Amino acid sequence: MNQAERVRHAVLAMPMAQTLQLAFRRLEAGESEIEIPVLDAFCFRPGQLQATAVFAVADFAAVSAAGTLLPPGWINATIDGTLKLLAPACGSHLRARGRVVNASRLLTICAAEVYAVNDDGQEQLCATLLGTARNIDAAAAKPVTIHAAN
């Protein structure tokens, strides 16, 4: 399995990705394209997605693109993201195109453009995201233990 396939598999195994019904349309070195349907469950009014769903698809696209450049055995996680909403997120689905802006050993700066797609396939840019992913050597990472307060 190549790195892009490992990223695809890891993302689609996440419960949030399954809930959002994420679908990869393209995933290659430093780039991704992901779609989510516009579902009433994610809308704040009929047919218009709430910002959280828009952020989620943008984040998945950007950080997935970043993940494709990692060496085997490494994973990544979002540590920062800024979303700018430009137009209503409405239509049949959203299409997010992620890309790597700058990759280094421990941090990758990534971005995504999110398009609202209507039933005719026409796209309208509705949001942009600039994010930072932390690159983690999974073999060296220590498990996180959370202690309950008494």
Features:
45% strand, alpha+beta, 22% helix, globular, six-stranded antiparallel beta sheet, 8 strands, 150 residues
Description:
The protein is an alpha+beta fold. It contains three helices and eight strands. It has helices spanning 3-12, 15-20, 51-67; strands at residues 23-28, 31-37, 43-45, 48-49, 74-85, 93-103, 107-117, 123-137. The protein has a six-stranded antiparallel β-sheet, covered by helices on one side. The chain has a two-stranded antiparallel ribbon with strand order 3-4. Strand 6 (93-103) and strand 7 (107-117) form a beta hairpin. The longest helix is centred in the middle third of the chain and has 17 residues, at 51-67. The mean pLDDT is 94.
Q: Give the helix level as a range of percent.
A: 10-25%
Derived structural class: alpha+beta
Radius of gyration of CA atoms, rounded to a whole number: 16 Å
Mean of residue pLDDT values: 94
Number of helices: 3
> Major sheet: order of its strands?
1-2-6-7-8-5
List the helices and strands and how they pair.
Layout: H1 3-12, H2 15-20, E1 23-28, E2 31-37, E3 43-45, E4 48-49, H3 51-67, E5 74-85, E6 93-103, E7 107-117, E8 123-137
Antiparallel strand pairs: 1-2, 2-6, 3-4, 5-8, 6-7, 7-8
Could you give a short description of this structure?
By secondary structure, this protein is of the alpha+beta class. Helix content is 22%, strand content 45%.
